[in-house]
Amino acid sequence: MVTNNSSNVIDVIQKQRDFFQTGKTKDISFRIEKLKALKQAIVENEQSIIQALQADLHKPELETYIGEISVIKEIDYAIKHLHNWLKPKKAKVSVEFFSYSARLYPEPLGVVLIIGAWNYPFNLIISPLIGAIAAGNCTIIKPSELAPHTSHLVANILNKYFEPEYIAVLEGGVETSQKLLAEKFDRIFFTGSTAVGKIVMAAAAKHLTPVTLELGGKSPCIVDSEINLEHTARRIIWGKFLNAGQTCIAPDYLLVDQKIKKNLVNALQKCLKEFYGHNPANSPDYARIINQKHFERLAKFLEDGEIIFGGETNPSERYIAPTLLDKVSLTATVMQEEIFGPILPIIEYRDITEAIALINSQPKPLALYLFSQNKNLQKRVLQETSSGGVCINDTVLQFGISSLPFGGVGDSGIGSYHGKASFDTFSHYKSVLQNSFWLDLNWRYAPYKGKLSIL
Ligand code: NAD
């Protein structure tokens, strides 16, 4: 079991550097063997994972499958494609370089650091780890201290299945993060808030360590009038109230065409009752807020508008009912900060131009949702807004598509992962140019006299 005092941090990094130097992690069969071991570790510990998430977040079993254990699909995807990803890629050369060949060789970076967040505390560690293993790196992991049961479980599982000189878990809070960030890594992969992302990037700059920052922000959800109302309501409610709204890509607020606002609100309310019953506090399918600090932060948001559904709270259980908030001012705190909880403000617009202008007046979001069957409107929103990703006529599921790189832009993040993007994130593509000996043209060699005219 690895502990996290300063000398241990340095010791673990050095042992990983030594292990990386042996070249073992570069071997493709080693990488595949470790990916298989990771899959086995998850399968064998499925029940403990469910229990840890239940203890940390009251996360329903189905949500743990969808949001955490489903990371296994990423392992299968990496195993299936790894041979192909590792092949050097040919690059074209122009005609005057006819005797040369150019290729791109992916190579591992070395020793990488993964720092996780608490909301999907298993997935957000394991998913980048898959990329780090596939790309041939050694990895140090710092899970979030705010989900302590999952943090201990991740440490126990990974320390049981892997040697610390290859994969090591260092548990702890901000202090442990700071000790790690003081050291040099070959990449830091951070998931968390934009504010802490800036701290991570500043620390990384001291060593010129490259960073991938998977951050947050306010992800808008536009609802046009040309929709299937029932499907729209179900998909919004599911994506928003999954994990009690504590999902980085949850729709943060709705921008609704005023023509359908009344009907949409009715459909959302009906759907909430169907999903969680008349008292969601008794529903086995509804999670809790991670801690008291976040509970209090969210409870204040309830004062920022008119509650038209929900609004009940219970501090001792850290319960906040799924809540719809109407008549919200754009200057209210709930519209200025990322909500990251089960409160959904509903803003209406008269013309899509207004909705686009509002989105563009805020930092670039991680996700943008659009419900509309109108092709021209879809095209306009895609062309006139910028976001990490877009999902049309659904929510959240873009996270689960391995062939779609996942990441933010601007304040919502730097870099991306999932599928091949994870492999690329933890690789360096080495450019290799090769000449042959059958020809050696004279044009570039001195003396240069008279040669300029050939060019
Ligand atoms: P956070 O930034 O508070 O913490 C993330 C990690 O950073 C934790 O491991 C924590 O120990 C560490 N940390 C905290 N303060 C630090 C400091 N001063 N110095 C160094 N390390 C520090 O984020 P969080 O509360 O765990 O997660 C919520 C945020 O993460 C939200 O903004 C959410 O949108 C975002 N998020 C993004 C994604 C994504 O994939 N883009 C996924 C999940 C969560």
From TrEMBL:
GO terms for biological process: aldehyde metabolic process. GO terms for molecular function: aldehyde dehydrogenase (NAD+) activity. Residues 6-432 form the Aldehyde dehydrogenase domain. Keywords: NAD, Oxidoreductase. The keyword Zinc-finger does not apply. Coiled coil: none annotated. GO terms for cellular component: cytoplasm. CDD domains: ALDH_YwdH-P39616. InterPro entries: Ald_DH/histidinol_DH (IPR016161), Ald_DH_C (IPR016163), Ald_DH_CS_CYS (IPR016160), Ald_DH_CS_GLU (IPR029510), Ald_DH_N (IPR016162), Aldehyde_DH_dom (IPR015590), Aldehyde_DH_NAD(P) (IPR012394). The keyword Amino-acid biosynthesis does not apply. Pfam families: Aldedh (PF00171). The active site is at E214, C248. This is Aldehyde dehydrogenase.
